[in-house]
Here is the input.
Amino acid sequence: MELKEALLGGSIVATGLMAGLWYAWTVSVIPGTRRVPDTTYIVTMQNINKAIINPAFIIPFMGIPLLLAGAAIVQFRAGDSRRGWLLASATATYIVGVLGVTIGGNVPLNDALEAFDLADSNEQAIADRRRSYETPWNRWHYLRTAANIGSFTLVSAAGIVATTGD
Here is the structure.
């Protein structure tokens, strides 16, 4: 197997796995957490936000743009501009729509939620905190999910488009 096929295949798998994570969250965790009381929601999200910071998440999450960019460069160098442009577009979509949205939208909300002290809060403060977190966090999440699915679609298209220049 040549490097360009290995990078392309790895890009498809990695981008698909991350898109699957976001999609699964959208169709399972969000509907489930809507059903729990405010205190349970906050405790759950604080714990999830801590637990997800681990190598099994961080390495693919941060590494996918490098993999996609590497795949694009190799395709361009091999003379396959069709695949190269699809992969370059997948890279840009992932960087802006997944990394950018997560870092600029979800993470600041996570940090603010982490700083919230349940023990020193009354029911109204807890309800207000949930409202100020849940709705904007979910909106950012839906955006990054759509972007990741878009990136996955582009990289998948690169995998099935007829090669040029080979």
